[in-house]
Amino acid sequence: MDINGLDISPQSTLHIIQKEKTDIYNRLRSIREDVEFVTRISAHYSHLPIVANQRCGAWYLDPAIASPEIVYFKSTDGHTGQWDFNLRRANLHLLPLIECSGGIIIVDSTRRGKRFPDALSKTIPIWCCVVNGALASQSKALPLGWNDKLYTSQAAVSRSEHSQMEFRVGDWIKKLTASTFTLSALSKPLRPMWLSPASTLPDLSPDSDIPFFPVICLSASKHVDSQPDGLESRPGFTYVQGSGDDHELWSQGLTPRLFWEHAKALLECSRTELPSFVRALVEQSQTPALAFTDTAQLSAVAIADRFHLGVCSGTLPNNPPLPPPCNAAIIVVPKDSEEDLTPDCASPPVIRLCNPPGKRGQHSFLSSVLPTATEFIRSKLAQGYTVLVASQKGDDTSLGIAIVALQYFFNEAGSYTGEDESRTSGSICSLLRDVQRAPDNRNFTVSKASIRKRLELIQQRIPDANPSRTTLKRVNEFLLTPRGFRRNLPSLAQTHEGSHLLNG
């Protein structure tokens, strides 16, 4: 075929046609069709709260009707042979909402080949079963006939796979009950149910006397089984099953938040107008604020005694007003921030840390950010301050700092324990020397289990706190590895000498 004077092979032509069928224009219109179905289901079961499973589900649920809870059931935890109840994604904050409302609807979607994603067909059923079992093992006051069986859809899970999952349930229950998480009481057990555009809607009215709380696993997209590529023609566009899945591959930087903020304008764009409009939206959303404004602010959530985690938005002044009761803070700023990092005095109540992206940032996090932050927190807590650690939304540097601080200065319940006498000199060099020997100090026990419990403490207060694997590795290395065995770190003198660059 000849296109614009170029001789293109039939295979290349088919590739171009196929790529156009799954482009952003068709995907956004497919999402709109699926949104209409989700909205109808929400209206039908209007007494039940509806939430989006991150990240795919957020494309299909209008924020105007969504409950604000953050939910993350990962499909990987339901993949065949990899089934798991992951404490990093415990989602236990949903239990009070379910008890109060009588159930919940969780929205997600999947691409061609399946009617339900593994998150809906396996991860959530595992979650329901484990929570029911954990409650049964911890309470003697449950209603008679409490049902903690594993329920899966026979259309999505084979009996063999069901049996293999069931075999592991006991271990998952033990893992949950051994954690620091507190389970909210339920008057009925949880039971998953599955709905898709092909489903008949069951009667779940508020006055129906069902012996369980329904956890409706709502798959937003139509299952296109007539075509192997999951595509189906519509007037004016091609329907793409599970369009919201893996949006990094097609969205050109558009996110669910941007989509919903500009949905009307996006869906009114022609195919030729849409890419440039999306680029403009993305660029606008990524432009940092250049000056302090009244909208710049800090939020704070209490994690432990006199210790808070938060999010900073906008560009803050040198001495920003701190949310009470906080009176000292570490603020992690982006690398390209124009904020002045110089402290106003020798012992400032607020310091700013900058952690570069990529491998350089991993090195800086381990060698400079964590030592500097930990020494600041140690000093301020010892002086009676209430400390806030905050970073921009999406930056998990503050989570890494918080885990280390909780390990050093707090017990598993979040009570301030002060510090061992061997760590009271107050200098960063002394602190670093102690970090080196901490794993061997009987008065200061650090293990992967104790680190995990500190993360659980954070997640009980901030359910969507989920640091990256890289950040957790650096935290483990900082706490568990003697300093002499850490990788490519500067000497103690170099670290102490250079720490002032991060102190402001």
Automatic annotation (TrEMBL):
- Domain Rit1 DUSP-like, residue spans: 356-479
What is the annotated signal peptide range for this record?
none
Look up the record and give one Gene Ontology term from the biological process aspect.
Answer: charged-tRNA amino acid modification
Segments forming domain Rit1 N-terminal: 17-283
Q: Which Pfam families match?
A: Init_tRNA_PT (PF04179), Rit1_C (PF17184)
A GO CC term attached to the entry: cytoplasm
Source organism, top-level taxon: Eukaryota
Q: Which GO terms describe its molecular function?
A: tRNA adenosine(64)-2'-O-ribosylphosphate transferase activity
The protein's name is Initiator tRNA phosphoribosyl transferase
